[in-house]
Amino acid sequence: MTATSSFDGAVPLSHLGLLRARGADAAKFLHGQLTSDFSLLGSSQVRLAGFCSAKGRLQASFIAWKAGPEEVLLACAASVLPATLKRLSMFVLRAQCKLTDATAEVRLTGFVGPSARALMDDAAPWTLVHRDAATVMRLPDAAGLARCIVAAPAEAAVASAPPLALDTWRWLEVQSGVATIEAATVDQFVPQMLNLELVGGVDFQKGCYPGQEIVARSQYRGTLKRRMFLFDVDAIAAPGQEVFHSSDPAQPAGMVANAAPSPNRGGSSALVEVKLATLGEGSLHLGTPGGPALERAELPYAVPIEAAAST
After folding, report:
1. Which residue, 71, 173, 174, 254, is the most exposed by fewest CB within 10 angstroms?
2. CB of 46 closer than 8 Å to CB of 137
3. What is the pLDDT of residue 147?
4. Are residues 21 and 168 in the same domain?
């Protein structure tokens, strides 16, 4: 039995905030601002989505779902919520949509392992089920473990489970290969640099949103030269930290998107955006050209390295 196979329990997701969009035009408004299709968002579906600047750079990333016929909830990193709420609100104009911070009203709890499976029945990843006042959202497995997020009114009881450390949950987020924009990485990445389109967070058929032309150009004209990969490192890694390649120590070769302490080997596991050209010979190092070496690990999905690198 590995160290991770025995993970079982629940943890309050205090690193996440919650944005609420409410009104007759809530889904329509989000459809015109984010990278995913919200006009077709069903009551049993969960969406991944990004919010980009006009230059196609991610300002925030979301896990979103319908909480009612005219209400959508969007979970994001708590560190980006205030600025994101302010910026999105600038675009509401005459739309019948009110944006508010719902973090204090709705509690988010992460469940892992058998405790998660007991809540999800046979739900597929990125779908949801309702249990009394709670919404249970099935996430993709990570490190072979089932995961879900339960959203419930702050005053409501949540299913009991053994306590789990937040660092364990964050490590599993890293292992899943689904990146979250944090304060340190705002405006750093085009969605494809974080593989967002590979995990269902970009819809190329939905029409316009801020930065859409640049995102589409990166997809169809072969201009993407950077991608995100999973690495282990014998050091504490942090979002926004630069990485360097041994062949070109004068300039950064990439940036850490998310990181968490590793329960298996010590040090950290990290999702790192790097230049595709650095994946051949040489080595990548954290923080400085002489910093700890990064050891590439396996993502749970394929990344089109050869096609992107050859263009």
Report:
1. 71
2. yes
3. 98
4. yes
